[in-house]
Every structure is written in C-alpha cells, then in structure tokens.
Amino acid sequence: xxxxxxxxxxxxxxxxxxxxxxxxxxxxxxxxxxxxxxxxxxxxxxxxxxxxxxxxxxxxxxxxxxxxxxxxxxxxxxxxxxxxxxxxxxxxxxxxxxxxxxxxxxxxxxxxxxxxxxxxxxxxxxxxxxxxxxxxxxxxxxxxxxxxxxxxxxxxxxxxxxxxxxxxxxxxxxxxxxxxxxxxxxxxxxxxxxxxxxxxxxxxxxxxxxxxxxxxxxxxxxxxxxxxxxxxxxxxxxxxxxxxxxxxxxxxxxxxxxxxxxxxxxxxxxxxxxxxxxxxxxxxxxxxxxxxxxxxxxxxxxxxxxxxxxxxxxxxxxxxxxxxxxxxxxxxxxxxxxxxxxxxxxxxxxxxxxxxxxxxxxxxxxxxxxxxxxxxxxxxxxxxxxxxxxxxxx
Length: 394
What we know:
Elements: H1 3-9, H2 12-35, H3 39-79, H4 94-153, H5 162-193, E1 201-203, H6 205-214, H7 217-222, E2 226-231, E3 237-239, H8 241-257, E4 264-271, E5 275-282, H9 303-308, H10 316-326, E6 330-334, H11 338-341, E7 361-367
Parallel strand pairs: 2-4
Antiparallel strand pairs: 1-3, 4-5, 5-7, 6-7
C-alpha cells in the first residue's frame, strides 16, 4: 500500500496525532540543535513535550472526531427518513456551524414532508369518497335498467321479434357489466378506507368452492376445458362465507377467461398442519414477467388480458389480496405454472420458458383456526352475477 493510500485510510483523529507527533519531533530536534545540552536533558524535554502534546492532541482530535461521527450517523438517519431527532452542540467552530445547518435543514424537510403527507392523505381520501359517492348514485338507475330489460325479455310487456330481442339482451348484458364494475369500485373504496366487514361463521369451504364453480360450468363446457378437482375432507371452518366465495370466484373467473379452448384448470383445496391450502392452476396464456410485480395493484390489467377480455376492471385481484391478507392469510402466484408444466406438451419448444402458454397458478393459505374477524360498516359486493337472469342466453 502506498503512503498516500495509507494516509487517507487512517481515521481523522489518528491523522491529527500523527501530524502533531511529526511536527513536535522536528521542533524538538531544531531546539536541541540550536541550544545544545546533554542527552539526558534532551530526553527529559522530549518526554515532557511528547506527553503534553499527546494528551492535548488526543482530547482535541477525539472531540472533533466524535462530532463528525455523530454528524455522519445523523445524515444516514436522515437518508432513511428519520427527521425527528436533532443534534445538540455547543461548538462555535466550522463543525458547529455545519451541525446547526443540518438541524435547520431537517426542520424544513420535516415540515415539508408532513405537509406533503397530509395533502396526499386528503387527496386520496377525497378521491375514495368521490368514487364511493358516484358508485352509490349509479346503483339505483342501473338497477332500474336491469329490472326493465329483464321485464321486456320475459315477454310480459309484449312479444318482440328476434332483432329487437337481440338489442334488449345487449342492453341487459352491458348493464350487468356496469353493475359489476360499480360493485368492484365500491369494494375497492371500502378496502381503501378500511370499512369492510369480515364476519367468520361455521362454513363448508368445499361447498363455497363448488358454488363458485357452478357459475362457470357453462363457459367451461363451451370452451371444452378439462376441470380437475382435488379436495381434502374438512369439517366446518370459521370463515366468512361471502368473502370466501368472492375469493374463489375471482381466481376461477380469471382461469376460465384466459385459458384457451381445450385447456385445463385444476382446483385443489387441502389441509396442511396449520393452514387451509388452496391452489388454482390453469394452462392459460400466463402473466408476462415484466407485469408480475403489478398483478395485485388496483386497476392494473396486463396488455394481453385487455386484448383477450375487454370487460375486466382490474380490481378483482386487488380485492382478493385484501380479503386474504386482512383475514390473516397469504396469497401469491407463479407463472409459468409449474404445477402443470411437466404434464403439458409444448408445441413451441424453441421459445423461452416465460414466453410459452404455461399458464398461472395462484396459491392461497388461510389459517386452520379460521379467518380473523374485522369490524366494519359495509360488506363487499363483488359476487359474480353470471347467468343471473333465466331469460339471458349464453
């Protein structure tokens, strides 16, 4: 190591000691040369000067070094977001001025951050309140449109020809999509402000899974999707039946929508030592790697998802994640779906793994002791209304 590198690697306090030692030695040698004297006298003088110099320099350098170290730690804390503490100093030198300047900077930053956070919370709350108000106001006219279109399709208001009936059915379908969107927006706003309720009661989780699946059997048959089910035996569990069904419906809905004709969907509900373990796998189009970090965020929809299913809201998985995590459970996914990877033949073997239609697997765990109750004022609405009217054809 060169002297320059060694010098800059030494602590500041040690540098000060070294400098004083060198200059003291030079000064003593000059004095001894000029004044002369015996070696014994010179040794005593050198010892006294070195001792006094060392003590004085050590105290000064340690004090100076401690101030700089405290200053460095405070800068690190400030970088980590802690702006509450202040450095105390009685120094009037350059270090004292630097510490006072840093304290003043932290005060200004803290005030600015507090104002920004407050404004952000107010703006976020205002947006949530607006969405909730608008959604509530839309529910009544949408319900009226749904009731009248269903009434017209029933034939009670008179007979329509095929073209007229086609228009009425389109009105019914479009109105139902709007109702689902409004319900999703209401659910998202209730999640954002924390007002949704979790009410666990004795629930048959397999019955909830089957009820959710029933809404998709017609589409599964139409696309000739192979459905596999694997259930463990459960007693009654402490679950919120409505929220449990919302979770199943949203994940199964995505699997059905994004799995091509002739694909596979596999639903597993099993018991582990501490958890209820749910796995829903498909051989659909999968989730591109670059979109995966955003998959549970509000209103996000992937580019491929928009092309395949134009009517999605981007709120389903956001709602599911909130339900599962607020209940004390966990949710995650993998894509490609390793659960079905080895069982499916891939025609495009020259494509990289993440570009093939390997599908997606969602994993959910809920503690065996049941969902964690949560007080609130509103229930979540977003149960699927697929084929709710007997007058609507597939």
